[in-house]
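Need tokens for this chain, all 193 residues.
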Amino acid sequence: TVAGRRIAPAFYELARIKSATGDLEAAKMLLRSAIEIQPTSLQYYLALATLLERSGGVAESITLYEDGISKNQQAVPLLNNVALLYLSQGDREKALARAQTALAQAPQDANVLDTIGLIHLRSQDAQGAIGFLERAVDYQPGESQYRYHLGLGYFETGSLDLAKIELEKARDRRNDAPWVPDINRLLAAIQER
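Here are the structure tokens for all 193 residues:
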């Protein structure tokens, strides 16, 4: 209904406030209501799945993403995020299938390209990862995490000069990122060779 389409954004905004003040249960309830009213809003699915994931509900988050995917023809962010969750759970097949579906919908999405590259890296296929990661960096050269993944791919394939360049760029762009200690470890290993 028209009234419902007007109230769903209000539920979303209220959920953001509740989340920021620590009332995660109220935020989840509001987001579920917003999804019920507007089941094609990717924004509501993303917000709720993020809350569920933060509170340890990875399986529930996966179920929610899959529900959102089933209700939306173009669900690239949902597909990409559920691919990462499947990967975190060790299910590389499902991760790759969902990421490839996202890539078919958005072949120039750097986030999706990075996800596919990361799946290949975690599958011990650094060579297969490189092309996806290079494209991700080409589309978003300022994204530190993409450069980190590309540097890792180069490192694992023995292209140490290229690895050093990408890892240094990743560290320089965001020296407070959680992957910086790994970057420093990799750079030290390159220096020793």
